[in-house]
Amino acid sequence: MVTGSPQQSATVAGTLKKPRWHELRVAYPRLAYSLVFSIFALLCINVLLTYYSYHARQDELALRASLERVQVTHDQALTATEGNLAANVGAQARRATLAARAMHLSIDTGKGTMYLLRDGAVLREMAVRLPKPAGTADPLRSPRGRRFVVRVVDETYPWEVPRSVFQQRGLPIPADRNVRGALGPVAVILDGNAVIYSRPKSGPLSDREYVLPGSVRAQADDLRAVRAVLKPGMAIYLY
Length: 239
What we know:
By secondary structure, the chain is an alpha+beta fold.
């Protein structure tokens, strides 16, 4: 059963109708303008944040690219400097070996040849092998300059094999790294931990393709032939 007059029903329906924007603006002008201003301000802030975020990202990318270019330039300059230093040391060693009068050894690392010299005369020429520069961080991988003989040893000499040799060869590192005969039948120990050695029959240095970084490998027969004149303190020039 429906109660009330039609006029009252219309009035109730009118009161339940959602107010329109202009009605809200007329009824509450300050509130309406505040809402509009707040929405506009939020939109402006959002645009500004997006703008600054974009440019900050671009600046970061530009900075990274600049740092990478600086690093590449630094590495290239360092490599060039190291190459120039090695070339200068090699040139000095070459001049020194030409001027030396006493008997000495001279090793041309470019040709892979070792000479026994005295007063500029070649007494013996010997082929040698040098280590490959790639794949090692050993500072002696490209021997240059003047060295001196410390001692001459044979296959009975126990030599402490560096850990890096086992690592490069993929071999387990033993607790005792002193290996008798590791430097082959004949070897010349130089100052600065470098050696001129011959290939042993067994051990970590027995691989034909592997040459100890910072050292020189010669034929055992050649080292035997010159062993008698290799005295402690004898100069060896590498260039």
